[in-house]
Amino acid sequence: MLSAFANCFKIPELRQRILFTLAVVVIVRIGAVIPCPGVNTEILAKFFQSVVEKNADNSVIGMFNLFSGGALENCAVFTLGIIPYISASIMLQLMTAVVPSLGKLAREEGGRQKITQYTRYATIAICLVQGYFYAGQFEHPEHSQLLAGIAAVTQKYGPLVPYPGYLFEFTTMVSLLTGTLLLMWLGEQITDKGIGNGISMVITINIVSRLPAALLQGFRMITGIDTGKEGASPALIIPLIFFLFAVIAGTIAITQAMRKVTIQYAKQVRGNKVYGGQSSFLPLKVNYSGVMPIIFAQSILLVPAFMIQILPIGTKPWASELADSLNRGTAYYVIYVSMIFFFSYFWVSFMFNPTQIAEDVKRNGGFIPGIRPGTPTADFLDYTMTRLTLAGAIFLAVLAILPSAAQHYIGVPQLTAQFFGGTSLLIMIGVMLDTMRQMETYLLQRHYDGFLKKGRIRGRSAGSAPIGQGAAVSTENYVWLFVILACLAIGGVIVSLVQK
Predict the structure, then answer these.
(1) How far apart are CA 198 and CA 302, in angstroms?
(2) Residue 396: which of 254, 233, 258 has the closest Cα?
(3) Are the beta carbons of 419 and 211 closer than 8 angstroms?
(4) Beta bridge partner(s), residue 262
(5) In angstroms, rounded to a whole number, what is the distance separating the alpha carbons of residues 217 and 166?
(6) Most confident by average pLDDT, 140-144, 165-169, 289-293
(7) Which residue from 215, 308, 309, 392 has the fewest beta carbons nearer than 10 Å?
């Protein structure tokens, strides 16, 4: 595997794509530390250090900060991240399956480009709404459930927003909107001129950037530093490491697992030539829905508890108990697992059309051995996919509750527990598999060995993904790009030294 990574830099086009992707990664991380104007970032940093990192129950803001790569902690221009674009994409994708006019548009030539344009417009609308929400939260943090506990910090160090008003709200909305649109454009550039899926790569960059902080929290838990308690038993370290590797290995296995349905094509004699007679297979993935059921379930479960706590009834004891049970009680786990199962089947029912697949197989002269073409084939595919979805839903449910279980029963800090399963682990593994698969395609085309001696790496999709639609960036542009990044790095070091 190490030799395969070394061979990646021997192929000029692949080397240029990798370097371009790394340069964009640096830009993404720079945007996560550039604060929006009008916010006292020092108070926000003290709030995260004194409240969020030590409060294991503050999962909402911790999750937002994780997927923004720490940008929320700095109130940076990339605070919203790429999540508004993901939300708009999911919304348009579901509408394409439900609204007949959009479904017809998607099948027309050039229709996908129009749907992509609609997705961008929806992203702008979502960003404006979320930007206004964040501006209101920063202006009045004492009434904010998202920033619960910051009142003690503001009373000691001053207001979070020294000059609130319409100008601050407008500036914050524009800054957050611009940051998300820039991230969306950078993701498209990675897909076009870099390596991997750009949008997913941006999310992975933000998640991985929190790994050092997660390791630091885990070290503090084990040693007892800054906790005032006795550290964890050293004997707990080895089981945790083995448990982490087991979760990662299981996630990779289920992500790539598929049922291969054999398809036999009948022989056709045309003149003196014989066509067909070949055997292929239809891949049916166990985890067909990917990470979507967990994202849907988390998003919906956050809304009731969040609304209860920001409404006037949130001060009543019964409302507080209800919100707590929806955050981390038994009801939370029961509803969470049930929604994961529901959305797993919901997603498959919309995205997997056995009738259409059966018709396509029949039209091409193929059939499944032992199954009659047409309706029986569609019924067989539907029955097979139903059983596979059950296995995938069980896997997603177990993986989704692992972080909470590790947090509440083992005492693993919240940020560290996010890497023991859940959405973050699924996204990271899926993106890394896709990226390595694209790199392996370049290696095999140039007659190099792949990352594995036996078999090939399979990504989240069954077929081969497009490797980069555009041409690689020229060497002259690379030089200017890295010169600009070097100037930014030097300027950042100078500014930090002057502030000290």
Answers:
(1) 27
(2) 254
(3) yes
(4) 281
(5) 39
(6) 165-169
(7) 215
User: Is 326 within 8 Å of 320 (Cβ atoms)?
Assistant: no
Looking at residues 19-47, what average pLDDT do you find? Answer: 84
Contact 289, 347 (CB under 8 A): yes
The H-assigned helical ranges of 140-236 are: 151-157, 166-193, 198-209, 211-223
Indicate whether 482 pLDDT > 70: no
First-residue to last-residue Cα distance in the chain: 44
154 has a pLDDT exceeding 70:
yes
Contacts of 159 (CB under 8 A, 6+ apart): 40, 43
Q: Three-class SS of residue 70?
A: coil
- Tens of pLDDT, residues 244-285: 888 888 888 888 888 888 888 776 666 666 665 677 888 888
CA distances (Å), 463 to each of 256, 421, 470, in order? 12, 26, 20
- Stretch (H or E) spanning 66: helix 59-67
Short-list 150, 160, 155, 144, CA closest to 314: 144
Say which amino acid occupies 115. I
Q: Say if residues 430 and 423 touch (Cβ distance below 8 Å).
A: no
| Short-list 445, 431, 434, CA closest to 10 | 445
Cα–Cα dist 148/327, whole Å:
14
Identify the residue whose tokens are 């957050």. Answer: 176
Q: How far apart are CA 21 and CA 198, in angstroms?
A: 9
Q: State residue 418's pLDDT score.
A: 77
3-state secondary structure 23-39: HHHHHHHHHCCCECCCC
The model's pLDDT over 274-302, given as tens digits with 9 standing for 90+, comes to: 665 677 888 888 888 887 788 778 767 76
Task: Please state, in angstroms and rounded to a whole number, the distance separating the CA atoms of residues 277 and 75.
Answer: 62
Question: What percent of the chain stands above pLDDT 90?
Answer: 5
Please report, as a single letter, which amino acid is at residue 459: G
Q: HSE (CB half, 13 Å, CA atoms) of 397?
A: 19
- Of residues 72 and 299, which shows the higher confidence score? 72
Rounded mean pLDDT, 35-56: 72
Which of 28, 7, 11 is closest to 79 using CA atoms? 28
**What DSSP line would sit under 434-498, residue for residue?**
HHHHHHHHHHHHTT---S-SSS----SSSSPPP--SSPPPPHHHHHHHHHHHHHHHHHHHHHHHH
Highest average pLDDT, of 25-39, 154-168, 408-422, 454-468, comes from: 25-39
Secondary structure (3-state) at 154: helix
